[in-house]
Records
---
Amino acid sequence: MTDKTLVQRYVQILSVVACYWFVSITLVFVNKALLSGSEKLEAPLFVTCYQCVVTVAACYAIRAAARRFPERISFPSLELDINIMKQVLPLSIVFVGMITFNNLCLKNVGISFYYIGRCLTTVFNVLLTYFILGQKTSLSAIVCCATILGGFYLGVDQEGAAGSFSFSGTIYGIIASFCVSLFSIYVKKILPAVDGNIWALTFYNNVNACVLFLPLMVMFGEIPIVLNFQFLTSINFWFMMTIGGIFGFAIGYVTGLQIQVTSPLTHNISGTAKAAAQTVLATHWFMETKSTLWWFSNMVVLGGSMAYARVRQLEMKNNTTVNKVIENTKDPITGEEPTMQKV
């Protein structure tokens, strides 16, 4: 019975990890096709906005299913509250920057270079944690970040040597990495506004994003581009747009599910391994030939990212142990920590 349960546990973990890989890799390839494929639309803000609209629609669909099958599906109420929208707005502004620059990076660089172009999230996490939260980082973590920076520099150098380097795409990737780090910090601050419910936050965030994208599309002249787009009535185009939106919504769910059935560290390792598989798949799919140093730069970034995840796990474990020791040594009556008395 124990062996069977263990096997079932492994099957569940492998299924969830495989689902995460499938959704994440498919989303990257679908967005790449939309932004620079045969039916590409030169309006990245509109593409991103539409995916936010699909996410909002998906939230309403799941809410309707939850009302019909409350014993099987749980989903928060989706009644719009203006006050909550205002509280979530700062996060939504960062969110719009994050997904916009992410798509602009993907539009201007190949999928094989996409991971290198977006690899500085960990470095920005360390910097923003220090400057915004005032939390210091260990020397081991800083060494890992330095390794990632070295891999990034080598990757950019090799991409330039191959003649496929995009300066704008790389800058967009750096900005997107910064926004991802800033977004993760703001999420913790904004979650209490929606009673800690991540789905409610997803809903309000995407509703705000839809509103924010409208003036941006007008400002950057995308409305005429969309109206004059030759494939505007193409079923295939709207199918791909909708699939991108659905997978954009799904990635949030499968990410949370993977963390739930494994651990944050395993999720980070899985994401890093997924990026490596995505890079290999992209080079084969687009029949790209890369130099040995180019591949080495990827390995350096991957190694630095995995090492950082391991260092952070050990630090959190040590901090938890220290806190438990302090808690156990407190006076059971006064709650005070023991002090050294002079003799």
---
Amino acid sequence: MEKMASMEIQRLTGENLDLRDRLDKMDEDNRKLKKAVAQLAQRSQLQADSTAQISGDSLAEVRYKERSWLGMLEFDRADLQSLVAELVLNPRVEQFNDFLPSTLPAFLLFMCIRYTDYRNDESLVKSLMASATKAIKRVVKGFITNMDYLSFWLANLCQVVNCLRQYSGEKQYSDQNTHKQNEQCLMNFDLSDYINVFHDIAFWVYESILQFIRNELSTVVVPAIVDNEGIPSISDSRPSGMRGRGASQPAKKSSPDTVVRLMTGYLRTLNARGVPEDVARLIFRSMSYYISATSLNNLLLRKELCHWSRGMQIRYNLSHVEEFLRESRLSPPSSQTQELLEPIIQASQLLQARKTDSDINDICLMYNKLTTQQIVKILSSYTPQNEYEEKIPQSFIQKVQDHLKKHRSKEEPTIMMNVDYVFPLSIPFVHSPLKLEEILIPECINLTFVKKI
């Protein structure tokens, strides 16, 4: 035991000596490092003092004076065509997003217009307006089948119209202006005639958008609204004598969801490109009218569809479109837009309604969105669902017709709806809080030859 204890003492003594040597070495290194740091600090101080002594008072703080921007873009007449090209012809829609508003070209163009007014240069403002309108027409023609570009230019044309209104100096448009915005109103020129020019171009673009939409919907509306059998339980309930007529036809791929998907895409594009809400609502009113007119005209021409089960299918298919319109955030509530579907809705309801002499008055009152000829046509084409359902007597149809003529004496004798009807465009005034003097020109719009003043 004593031998083991002695060995352990020797081992601990050796370790203690090693640790003491290491500690002494670390103390020596620490002293050297402190000395080096002190020398470096002294050298740095000497260098700073030397620099300060040499420079003296020559280094003074540079301050920028605050500049009052006028919210205009100065340009030379020689650069007019380049200016219009960069503002109208060259911008790509995909460059504009949440951080770069789609209506920026309209504001930049108006800032150029303000400069011509500031200079009181009538010749220059006329040249600018003529070149801009010509370029807009040219670019729209080049993208006449592109919904994104059409929406982009519709939004910009509406914004140009509203800028010309807001800064015209007229009280009805300047009530919400700030003091600075009122100072920026046009001083020398009355450009109200150009408001009409830009409005006319906007209406043309608006019609082009509707034509694009009609072209796409024309192939899906009838299969989706009239032909689609969304209620499986009655899908085979065709009238007797007509079963099998559609057996050889290829299956229709379009459904109400197809129409809703297209409408969702249109609304997303209009919103993304900054089209005013009232204008977007007008586009959807025309769209709803087209869906109703196309569906009703097709139903009136196809006797085999005039039975109660088809009325149920059509009403079910239309409910998808109605639901979309309710949820689309087109305010005020899209009831006015939904009302445009009433002709085809009432036609589907008429197919399902009772048709007895006691119902004549109700038929004439309830289906007020259908003309007399349309009601008579549907009743005349109606086919019993099965052998248990009686055919509508001609005497009943005549009574309905007589009753309608008596109470609708001023009604125009029309049976087919005009699918090409377009609601007239009226650009609503929307005040812009955007400060012209704070607008910056992004690099993607190459206006290096203009000067912000």
---
Amino acid sequence: MLSWKRTSSLILALVEKKIFSGLRQPYEGHYVPICNGQKRIWTVSMNTSSPNTPLVMLHGMGSGVGLWVLNLDSVSRNRPVYALDVLGFGRSSRTKFNRDSVLAEQEFIDSIEEWRKAMNLGKIILLGHSLGGYLSACYSMQHPEQIKHLILVDPWGLPQRPDDLDVRRDIPAWIRVVSAVIEPFNPFAPLRALGPWGPSIIAKLRSDLIRKFEHMFPDNRIAEYLYHCNAQNPSGETAFKSLMLQLGWAKNPLLPRINNIPAEVSMTLIHGSHSWVDYSVGYQVKYERPNSCVNVEVIKRAGHHVYADQPALFNDFVNRTCDQCDRPITSSDWYVSAAGQEFREKTVQQQQQQQQQERTLDGQNQSEEGDCRAPIDCNANPVLDDSCTN
């Protein structure tokens, strides 16, 4: 007899516990009350006795703290780490968000700040993936004094929606299918309607993500986790729908307002070379912030879920970046990975070829009237130079 697939916060907690059985280091999972106790943020804490700057991690859309399982042991080696279920997702409160995009965004920001105050944390290194990257940047605009360093991992919502959508890079087939079917609905409404078939559909649609964990978990616990994260009250999901025009585009994109983050806030952008998020936007951020420290890292053979595609490279880069936040650095010793250096060398050649072509085409265009464009300093070019000075 057909029975609908049950879901509950308890089942989600049990599946999460199964996932965290793969951790080698001790962790503590606990709720942090915010908004005078009316809401709660589920938090996983590790190595809280370390004196180094805490790393706070925000997951992406439809996810939760469980998907950091390939990273938590490593990134908590030298510092406190706090991984949050973003308000409205995972095991955090499924609150009712305002349907206005600006107000919904503000509710997310306020929840992060209230959480920080409740945890009695000072300056933090804030890392966000996808939607978590968007929220991390928004938070940094309003609370820059709390940010030691900002790490955006393949962030959603940076560029403006182009008039000609053909200019965007190809995105995965599962996103195209989901986007076309569910545009009038919340993103995961069909998943909840599928009932008992939900986990198996997740396993097929998100097989690209689930395969990344197979070496650790040969069973279906990741598919189960994703299902129970998204089969409950679609609180954060509804808020995300308020923030977006389409799955790939934000109503209030970050790039036009990226300089609302003060120049004193340094940041790192980590992209996957095969992601549906165009990594060139990272270099646009660097170009838009010529007086700020902006590092861009493109990890080869990684897609949107960089942290799971290449966890060793990702962990190493995050650790080195965070370690440099706890000591004075110069422009000569900011970490650049071997993969990133190889990418940059190729990009340098492409940039030089492009500049030569432009010089040839321009010819005598720069007349006595002069060039109306501001001159570009090659030493500060967002593609050619990824070093920083504090």
